[in-house]
Amino acid sequence: MKILTKDQILEASDLKNEAVEVPEWGGSVLVRTMTGADRDAFEASLTTTLPDGARKPNMANMRAKLVALAVVGEDGNRLFEVNDVDRLALKSAAALERVFAAAQRINGLGAQAEEDAAKNSKAGLSEGSTSA
Questions:
Q1: What letter would DSSP give residue 60?
Q2: Which domains are assigned to the chain?
Q3: Per the record, which residues fall in region Disordered (predicted)?
Q4: Residue among 82, 73, 6 nearest 38 (CA)
Q5: Which of 45, 49, 96, 97 lies at a C-alpha separation of 20 to 30 Å from 19?
């Protein structure tokens, strides 16, 4: 197995795009795998810290949040900013769901990704493995 250098890792082109047809919007959008920073921002946006320091789920505009982070233009730059999420959330639920589902799939998010990871984890264990 080839061991990569820091420069090879930092220079690797590892963000992939997928075109998703959105008839409600009259065309297609490019959905990109998120950067690590984008994924952290998305996950952080799904919880709210209460005054006592406890955290509770915040699912408000969850689909619009992910779509805003994952949809890019042909230049690879995000089309939406954080302040666009509320307006994006007012778009067709069917259209948002279609783009959201694609973003989940290519970013390894959601229940299906968890099931796939569990299957891969079990399949990767050999009979002599001491891993649980």
A1: T
A2: 16-121 (3.30.2220.20)
A3: 111-132
A4: 82
A5: 45
